[in-house]
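Task: sequence design from structure.
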């Protein structure tokens, strides 16, 4: 697909995205154990694409478009290496946030604006799978990837990376720091916490989901108490982290488990250890996937790109560019990650089906409790 055609097509559909988001609400009845509900992870019946040796040899000179969200950073030289190896040129097609990217893909399912998507996560996974956005393909790296991350067994999407959305705090701001998510409602942490709106921010959504998993039916009371404790809400991660948290106007923020490692790497002057830490029981496991967009004119070239994105060579580049962790178990982490990344063995997970069914219910209720 030609880049100029895709750019025009994105412009045409952009006005439709908000309408789709507004109409993606689910039934207000909550899931019950007695309901028979088909999972989005069930086999859709779409035919799997198989990459033949003949097809590999025929794609040299092709150009394909990789659709990514706006904060994706391409590792320096990675796609140039892919071109040297395969003869395939990769154009990066940047959209907006993950929700908008997925909504565009749903609107154009079967006639996509690009060829491969990078960055759809487990909170939006069912929205795409229920609309047959992806072409099933099992990459050559499949057996190297962490089994718990392979949520779709038929390969419509393939895990690329994972990370944990966690509460972070400045170590030197507290004589007795918060140690659990419940501490945020304690009056001694009044005016200390800033988080993001779950309707506009992936970390904000992750923290809302974490609170629902941790507190169960009592999650609404938790947020009511947070509001009474004078929490601050921002639209996105950058505002919360770089404006409120970095200035130390607020000393607790929703960020990532890798953020302390980033603080160590980029500290100026250098530091001996990260100046920030995480609250482990607040962490929500986020998994990002890649997949071939159904309807692409270049399925073989796209399949080779999925192979590359999940290869050890690429996987070892993403920790220090996007501060996520590789899905390929053979990839080695940089030294700073081995030294300072805190393991989160019990990070919160919620099934993609449950998220898709209840997302609008939860966010609407959150808005009533926190913003109104």
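Answer:
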């Amino acid at each position: 697909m030609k880049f100029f055609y895709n750019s025009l097509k994105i412009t045409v559909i952009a006005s439709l995205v908000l309408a789709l988001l507004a109409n993606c609400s689910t039934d207000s009845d909550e899931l019950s154990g007695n309901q028979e509900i088909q999972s989005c992870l069930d086999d859709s019946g779409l035919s799997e694409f198989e990459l033949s040796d003949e097809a590999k040899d025929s794609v040299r000179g092709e150009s394909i478009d990789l659709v990514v969200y706006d904060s994706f950073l391409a590792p320096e030289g990675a796609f140039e290496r892919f071109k040297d190896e395969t003869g395939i040129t990769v154009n990066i097609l940047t959209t907006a946030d993950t929700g908008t990217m997925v909504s565009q893909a749903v609107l154009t399912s079967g006639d996509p604006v690009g060829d491969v998507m990078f960055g759809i996560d487990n909170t939006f996974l069912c929205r795409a799978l229920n609309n047959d956005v992806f072409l099933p393909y099992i990459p050559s790296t499949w057996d190297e990837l962490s089994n718990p991350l392979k949520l779709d067994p038929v390969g419509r999407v393939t895990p690329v990376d994972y990370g944990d959305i966690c509460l972070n705090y400045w170590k030197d701001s507290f004589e007795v720091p918060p140690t659990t998510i419940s501490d945020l409602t304690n009056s001694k942490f009044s005016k200390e916490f800033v988080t993001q709106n779950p309707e506009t921010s992936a970390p904000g959504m992750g923290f809302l989901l974490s609170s629902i998993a941790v507190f169960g039916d009592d999650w609404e009371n938790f947020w009511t108490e947070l509001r009474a404790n004078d929490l601050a809400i921002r639209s996105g991660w950058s505002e919360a982290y770089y404006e409120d948290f970095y200035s130390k106007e607020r000393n607790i923020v929703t960020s990532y488990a890798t953020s302390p490692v980033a603080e160590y790497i980029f500290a100026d002057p250098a530091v001996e250890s990260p100046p920030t830490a995480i609250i482990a029981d607040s962490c929500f496991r986020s998994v990002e996937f890649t997949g071939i967009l159904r309807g692409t004119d270049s399925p073989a070239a796209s399949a080779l790109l999925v192979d590359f994105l999940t290869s050890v060579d690429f996987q070892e580049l993403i920790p220090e560019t996007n501060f996520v962790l590789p899905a390929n178990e053979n990839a080695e982490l940089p030294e700073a990650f081995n030294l300072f990344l805190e393991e989160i063995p019990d990070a919160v997970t919620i099934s993609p089906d449950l998220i898709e069914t209840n997302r609008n219910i939860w966010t609407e209720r959150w808005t009533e409790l926190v913003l109104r």
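Strands lie at 63-68, 89-94, 116-121, 134-135, 158-170, 193-196, 232-234, 252-256, 276-293, 325-326.
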